[in-house]
Amino acid sequence: MDRINIHGVKIHNVTMQEAVETVLNWVSGDSIHAVYTPNAEIIMQAQRNPELKNILNEAGLLIPDGAGVILGSKILKTPLKEKVPGIDLVKNLLKASAGKNIGFYILGGKPGVAEMAAVNIMSEFGKVNIRGYAHGYFAPEEENALIENINKQKPDILLVALGVPKQEFWIHQNMYRLNCKVCIGVGGSIDIFAGTATLAPEFMRKAGLEWLFRLIREPRRYKRMMDLPRFILLTLKKRFSRKK
Question: Most buried of the four, 11, 14, 97, 206, by CB within 10 Å?
Answer without folding.
Answer: 11
